Amino acid sequence: METSACARPRKIIHVDMDAFYASVEQRDDLGLRGKPVAVGGSAERGVVAAASYEARAFGVRSAMPSVTAKRRCPDLIFVKPRFDVYKAVSAQIRAIFAEHTDLIEPLSLDEAYLDVTANKQAIASATTIAEIIRRRIRETTGLTASAGVSYNKFLAKLASDHRKPDGLFVVTPALGESFVANLPVGRFHGIGPATAARMERLGIHTGVDLKAQSLAFLREHFGKIGPYYFGISRGIDERPVRANRIRKSVGAENTFSADLHSQDAMREALGPILDKVWRHCEATGTRGRTVTLKVKYADFRQITRAVSSPQPVTSRMSIEQAAFRLLGELPADPRGVRLLGVTLSGLTTEALMRTDTIQFALPL
């Protein structure tokens, strides 16, 4: 297993654009600069896809219902997404990455991992490469990016968040374990709100608390992800940067603070989940053939149901129709539902598909 004191540590950079969608809109419309902007949704309905830093100061966040966002920030300006523009800017940024390495693992349009251990320009310092990349992005796109530099992906991701916006932070092998120790577990990439809350109930609040747990304990309480938690609490992450990784599915889920008991409540709760899945499809130009609904009941019993179409779906409505139909066929449980999720798989690119809307052929 890799350790923080390995003789030849990798040199990993995580680059994350600052409020990407909103920043592009503010760049292209002078009237939006310095103002609270939400991309996506409207004052009456929908969810926020991205928020400018001016909006974030009021507590507006991505995936937040638009009505809530408007309540928090009465002067919030809603802007329709322009995914074709975001994709074009993302391509410019990707070209800058490629000047230094072919080991690029995109996570979305606005962030990626780069392995620059052996880089095209033979620059010894990963920090210098990160500085060059950030400067080139600003010169080429007029936008700012934050970057984290470290010896593995987990720490590079944490580092890029540390000095946002427009920041650069380095976590060296000597500092890795201590950097993790005092951070709240909710800040860890790969630990979502529901898992963080579960850890809190187990007395795990920070990295040092997580490190105090045995591997057996973490396996018992968190299953197959337990070894990953064991490693990152020690600054260890062996995952390589995977260039040209093919994504097999896109999904989103939500664990609710109160269990849901009615079909109407569940359909309403699926709305933001479906919005998140479809935003990714729109942003990346991907579509899928199979919709899977995930349901976890209050007693933690979990079931999934799926349906496939001969052709990829090309609208959010088609995914919603399939998810609602699958939901309606599930057995009722008086104890309620604590989690819902939707995954779209069998992915393909938009350019390969027909342009008409495909309706799912049901039943299963």
UniProtKB/TrEMBL annotation:
SUPFAM superfamilies: DNA/RNA polymerases, Lesion bypass DNA polymerase (Y-family), little finger domain. It is found in: Cytoplasm. Its main location: cytoplasm. Keywords: Cytoplasm, DNA damage, DNA repair, DNA replication, DNA-binding, DNA-directed DNA polymerase, Magnesium, Metal-binding, Mutator protein, Nucleotidyltransferase, Transferase. Its EC number is 2.7.7.7. It is an enzyme of class 2 (transferase). Monomer. Belongs to the DNA polymerase type-Y family. This is DNA polymerase IV. It comes from Jiella pelagia.
